Amino acid sequence: MTNNTSTVPKFPYLRQDFLASIVVFLVAVPLCVGVAVASGVPAELGLITGIVGGLVTGLMPGSSLQVSGPAAGLTVLVFEAVSDFGVSTLGLIVLIAGLLQLAMGFFGIGRWFRAISVSVVEGMLCGIGLVIIAGQIYAAAGLKAPGTGIGKIAGLPVAVVDAMGSTKALTSLAIGAGTIAVIVLWKKMPKAVHSVPGALAAVVLATVATLAFSLPVGTVQVKGLLGVIQPPGAEAFGELATPAIWGTIIAFALIASAESLFSAAAVDRLHDGPRTEYNKEMIAQGAGNTVCGLLGALPMTAVIVRSSANVSAGAKTKASRVLHGVWLLLFAAAMPWALALIPIPALAGILVHAGWKLIPFRQIATLWRSHKGEALILVVTAVSIVAVNMFEGVLIGLALAVVKTAWEASHLKTQVIDEGVGPIQVHLSGNATFLRLPKILDSLEALPRDRPVELDLSGLHHLDHACRTALENWAERHSTDGTEPVKVTSAA
Fold first, then answer.
1. Where is the SLC26A/SulP transporter domain (predicted)?
2. Which one of 36, 50, 99, 223 has the fewest beta carbons within 10 angstroms of its own beta carbon?
3. What pLDDT does 286 receive?
């Protein structure tokens, strides 16, 4: 008897995933290095986080095609943490943040992140983008940036004047500006060259130009992978007694989780494959950050730039992101000398471009036309992050979103019908909560005391205890001698 059953390949999409992994690797290298340098830590720590994102998070279930690694969106927060607590404590912060993510994933909290106001998230990205752009302009000019977001922006005019008087600073700025120009114009190049990511091409060209003309610009400092791995020590654990560090840990966990899960939702819209399982993705991110913390590396999130490149390159399974981690490991182990050739202003240019893309210009315009309240939340969140810091700025945005939602939820319509004779009819519809109580009482207490009143509450969707008590007290006061008692039609 002939067996007609065809043999199914064990890895049916190996070719597509292999090619996609190369593309993602080429996109990841300059971003990993750039984010690390901008965060104030050795360049290799960015590569380590990218490797863990591929080999640890990449192997786990959750979202099959999104790629994790160091993100520009956490640069500001990491820089603040390193400035406040030192590089030696960074690993501990990332470790505990990862454990918190694991706990949130195991307890099913991951899916609740989808309830966070999109305006707050967009405002967060906008604020981060502004701080990154301002900070990296200083880096592009070879100048020291002020420590605060508002200081970076306020100090730009003085920095420009200082740069104009220095040939070295102008040369460095030219490298940064040229890097941005290459990235922007790369998309207009013939399709044959599009297999090379624009950011990588820009870094290579900047490096070649720096070497060919012996330009006086700073380059990346290299220590080697083993030289930068720094597991948290006893001294770092002693920092846990400082209350301020816990705010940073919570900020790492919440912001990294929100960015990862919103990225997952965006990536799901790019392909027709399996949908993201949010709690499992939270666990995967937590596992990755736990390992990063143990190695003293940067925190990770899912990164939309790498993820979209993965999908666009034809990836079909998680094999592509795992392989990209393998290529990063081989590159960091075999070619660390290549990092030492990269000009710092070129990396600054990459991050200025990344920061610009974080600012949601179209969303702001759309929201302003249709939902001015949401646009206000976005702007206030962004300004708060620039003026104060990342964590408190996001909290201010969330608080404003909650207040707006509570105000809208208490929407109430009061209609008074007085035909001159007979009882005055008052109809309340919507949601009667304590937030609208002053308005309700103002309308009722303005009614004539010598006329009967019919109060119709049947149109209310919700009547809270404070409003019910206040209405009962008003009805009792209004029903004076000689006036018919207030007739109340109860809410459904």
1. 14-381
2. 223
3. 95
- Rounded CA separation 222/272 (Å): 41
With 0-12 / 13-18 / 19 or more C-beta atoms within 10 angstroms meaning exposed / middle / buried, residue 8 is exposed
217 domain residue, yes or no: yes
User: Distance of CA 261 to CAs 118, 121, 309, 359, Å?
Assistant: 12, 11, 18, 19
CATH number at residue 451: 3.30.750.24
Asked if 216 and 354 sit in the same domain, the reply is yes
How many structural domains compose the chain? 2
Same domain, 466 and 325: no
Q: Answer whether 0.85 is exceeded by the pTM.
A: no
Position 3 pLDDT exceeds 60: no
Residue 73 pLDDT grade (very low, low, confident, very high; cuts 50, 70, 90): confident
Q: Which structural domain range is residue 119 located in? A: 14-361
Query: Is the separation of the CB atoms in 134 and 356 below 8 Å?
Result: no
Angle at 142 between CA 139 and CA 147, to 5 degrees: 50
- Give the confidence band of 8 by pLDDT, cuts at 50, 70, 90: low
3-class SS string, 281-321: HHHHHHHHHHHHHHHCCCCCEECHHHHHHHHHCCCCCCHHH
What is the model's pLDDT at position 58? 92
Q: Looking at the structure, do residues 419 and 341 belong to the same domain, yes or no?
A: no
Q: What does the mean pLDDT of the chain come to? A: 85
Which of 173-177, 381-385, 427-431 has the lowest average pLDDT?
Answer: 427-431
Regarding whether 436 and 349 lie in a shared domain, the answer is: no
pLDDT at site 4: 52
